Each structure stands twice: as C-alpha cells, then as structure tokens.
C-alpha cells in the first residue's frame, strides 16, 4: 500500500515538473481560486488516485500549493494544508512546509501532504484547503479545491 502511494506521488510530482503550471489540470491536479496575503498569493490544488486492494476501492488524495511572489524581493513562505470529507467531515491537517520564492516567481504546484481513504458507497466529495504567509506577514485566507474521484 505504501509503495503504491509512493509511486503515485512520484508520478504526480514528475508530471507536475514536466508540465507547465497552466496545464496542471491536465496532469490530474485541479487548483482552486487564488488568495493572497501581501505580496504572496496561493492556490490550493488537489489530486486523487483511485486504486483497488482485493474488493475494496481506495483513493489517495494529495494536497498541493501553488505560490506566487508579486514583490520585488525573494521571500520565505510557510504553507499548510487541511483535508476533509465534505459530507459531515471535520478538517484534519495533512501537511505543512516552507520554501523560498524568488521575486516575481511562481513555485509549484508543490505536494504538501496526502491521505488515503476507502471509497464509500456513494460518490463522496473530498476537499482540501491551503493557506500561506510570508515571513513576518499574516496568514492568507483559505484557497480550497475538491474532487470526487471514487466513481466506478
């Protein structure tokens, strides 16, 4: 199971590096709307990989952040991602990180964290939310993205 998750994450990362950010959705990574805090803007992105173990279907859900620095100087940026199942689920932190974003540059989508869930009897929607802040700045609002990829 861990090998499948590692392989899926490695594949998603390789595709994200090879495909320009504008085509991220073509690689199975869907991004939500952008939010900003000062000169740092963030988009929360999500991907889901469905797989089967015996007769049970699972999905590996990965949260990503796409960061943009609109300022004239490079900045260190911290970011966090949370996950929930939309129908009554509560938010759970699945990852955080920190990176340097050069002046006027865009980083990502960068994988933040992932989680595996059993596919339910209905096509249940999974949602992530991501926020970011530059050193010394305030946290941005939440950028959300959702998927429902447990179809048969």
Strand percent estimate? over 45%
Q: What oligomeric state do these chains adopt? A: single chain
Q: Evaluate the radius of gyration.
A: 16 Å
Strand order of the largest sheet: 1-2-3-6
The biggest beta sheet is recorded as:
4 strands, antiparallel
Total helices: the number is 1
| Outline type | elongated
Low-confidence stretches: 1-27
Structural class: mainly beta
What's the helical proportion of residues? 10-25%
How far apart are the termini? Answer: 20 Å
What is the averaged pLDDT score? 79
Secondary structure: number of strands: 8
Tell me the series of helices and strands, N- to C-terminal.
HEEEEEEEE
Task: Kindly describe this structure.
The structure is a single chain. This protein is mainly beta. It is 11% helix and 55% strand. A 4-stranded antiparallel β-sheet has the order 1-2-3-6, covered by helices on one side. A 4-stranded antiparallel β-sheet has the order 5-4-7-8, with no helix packed on it. Strand 4 and strand 5 form a beta hairpin. The radius of gyration is 16 Å and the shape is elongated. The relative contact order is 0.25.
List the helices and strands and how they pair.
Elements: H1 2-18, E1 30-37, E2 40-53, E3 56-69, E4 75-85, E5 92-101, E6 106-118, E7 126-134, E8 143-147
Compose a concise summary of this entry.
By secondary structure, this protein is mostly beta strands. Helix content is 11%, strand content 55%.
């Amino acid at each position: 199971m861990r090998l499948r998750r590692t392989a899926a994450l490695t594949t998603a990362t390789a595709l994200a590096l090879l495909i320009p950010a504008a085509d991220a959705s073509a690689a199975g990574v869907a991004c939500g709307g952008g939010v900003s805090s000062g000169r740092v803007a963030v988009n929360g992105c999500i991907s889901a990989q469905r797989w089967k173990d015996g007769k049970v279907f699972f999905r590996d859900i990965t949260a990503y952040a796409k960061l943009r620095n609109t300022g004239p100087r490079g900045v260190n940026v911290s970011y966090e991602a949370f996950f929930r199942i939309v129908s009554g689920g509560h938010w759970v932190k699945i990852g955080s990180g920190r990176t340097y974003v050069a002046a006027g540059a865009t980083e990502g989508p960068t994988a933040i964290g992932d989680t595996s869930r059993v596919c339910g009897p209905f096509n249940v929607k999974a949602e992530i939310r991501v926020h970011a802040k530059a050193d010394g700045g305030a946290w941005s609002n939440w950028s959300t993205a959702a998927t429902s990829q447990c179809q048969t």
